[in-house]
Specification:
about 450 residues, alpha+beta, Creatine Amidinohydrolase, Chain A, domain 1, Creatine Amidinohydrolase, 17 strands, globular
Length: about 450
């Protein structure tokens, strides 16, 4: 029986080869000639003045070809040919060699195994007329590649653009990463009911998803109460929370180099009714925003729709005393929702190409009101995007409004006495844009806060 993943991966390699053939041909038509591309996984880096390595991650453009563990590998791409993977497996007794991965890449790509980075360079052959993609400049020099051919801007723009459009294989990897995260989220939710510490919940997440800390696609956020108001909170207190009002978990998983990125907010026994209502209403809004993911639609407009929906919630729950329209026009939603609606997702959690104007390059800057919006590119079939609206009660952002001209628009008593302690709410799913409508890759696995 044919392995479904192998079939998807074979098609993926075929499509990526054709894409990169076309990219090199387009550059040649502009007078930029490259005989091929060397994709370098990258070498191991050490902490300053130390012999301990920084946790290693391969160059993402290399990782698109194969999920090979460890540093120093090379992939040699020549137009019209199947790429050759040069895998470095050191002969060593100090450290364990990189473990093989249960993945069909050796059945699809020609693989040459060597013992050292120097052997990999020797095995690459004549590549001085190639472009080089990677951060290890000494390797590029050893290969004889011209300095101007190291990550040339016009090539990288095309490669970044293409990574924004996931192949079916890549989509399946992200779906599997969401499946892998699901038992971790369930375990944390269960532990929250018992009031376990952030650190204990984090440890339980790692065990449930079979991850080491360094294997996570990003540092988990597990935040009790006021900690949920820090957007990238990472401290993970050891002590059990004295009050269990709210728990926010933002945690993903990794499969074959691809990430999931999922956030849930769980009001607990001490949460006031108004906060529970805010969480329910934000979940409803998030579902509407997911349903609105369509090819050809502006992601900036979707972000603005999130602000308008949040204005409705803040007005209807009494947090803001003015109408939703007035709240939006006076930018009163901004301190409650200070980040972008989401981002591209793939080999990197904040994947490349989100603000890119065209395959040739260029940048679409976000509107001045929304400077942190990571995605301004028009939505297209094949993109995987996070949809993650939030409502937070952040003293740092609210304080300027207490004395300003908008102070009377806020119910400060409600904010201070009932909502500050809850920190905030964020709900995030990973969504594939298709011609037939959105496909939520994470909600089926993880469920919602009501499930």
């Amino acid at each position: 029986m044919e392995d479904p993943l192998k079939e998807l991966y074979t098609e993926h390699i075929d499509l990526v080869c054709r894409q990169y053939d076309a990219a090199l041909a387009a550059l040649a038509a502009q007078g930029k000639h490259y005989a091929g591309i060397v994709f370098a996984a990258g070498g191991e880096l050490l902490y300053h003045a130390d012999d301990q390595p920084i946790p290693y991650r391969p160059t993402p453009h290399f990782a698109r070809w194969a999920p090979v563990q460890g540093p120093d590998h090379l992939l040699i791409f020549r137009p019209g040919e199947t790429p050759t993977l040069i895998r470095v497996v050191p002969r060593d007794y100090w450290y364990e060699p990189p473990a093989p991965v249960d993945h069909p890449y050796p059945e699809v790509l020609p693989v040459e195994v060597v013992a050292t980075a120097e052997d990999a360079i020797d095995s690459a052959g004549e590549v001085k007329d190639f472009a080089y993609v990677g951060y290890d400049l000494e390797v590029a020099e050893a290969l004889g590649i011209d300095e101007e051919a190291i990550e040339p801007e016009e090539l990288m723009a095309r490669l970044d653009w293409l990574r924004g459009l996931k192949t079916p294989y890549e989509v399946e990897c992200i779906r599997l990463a969401a499946d892998r995260a699901a038992p971790g989220h369930a375990t944390v939710r269960s532990g929250a009911r018992s009031g376990h510490s952030e650190r204990a919940l984090h440890a339980a997440y790692l065990a449930a998803t079979a991850h080491l800390e360094t294997e996570l696609p990003y540092a988990n956020i597990i935040a009790w109460n006021e900690h949920a108001a820090t957007l990238h909170y990472q401290s993970k207190d050891r002590g059990d929370p004295p009050l269990t009002a709210n728990l926010l978990i933002d945690a993903g998983a990794e499969v074959f180099g691809y990430a999931s990125d999922i956030t849930r907010t769980y009001p607990q026994s001490a949460a006031p009714l108004v906060f529970r209502e805010i969480v329910d209403r934000l979940d409803t809004l998030q579902r509407k925003l997911v349903d609105a993911v369509r090819p050809g639609r502006s992601y900036v407009e979707l972000h603005e729709a999130a602000h308008r929906g949040i204005a409705d919630i803040l007005h209807e729950t009494g947090v803001l005393k003015v109408s939703a329209e007035e709240a939006f026009e006076r930018q009163l939603t901004d301190p409650f929702f200070p980040h972008g609606l989401g981002h591209h997702l793939g080999l990197q959690v904040h994947d490349v190409g989100g603000r890119q104007a065209a395959p040739e390059g260029g940048v679409i800057d976000p509107p001045p009101r929304y400077p942190y919006l990571r995605t301004t590119r028009e939505m297209a079939a094949g993109q995987v995007l996070t949809i993650e609206p939030g409502i937070y009660f952040i003293p740092l952002l609210l304080e300027p409004h207490r004395q300003g001209g908008h102070a009377s628009a806020f119910d400060w008593k409600l904010i201070d006495e009932e909502l500050i302690v809850c920190g905030g709410v964020r709900i995030e799913d990973d969504v594939l844009c298709t011609e037939d409508g959105p496909e939520d890759l994470s909600r089926p696995a993880v469920g919602g806060h009501r499930d």
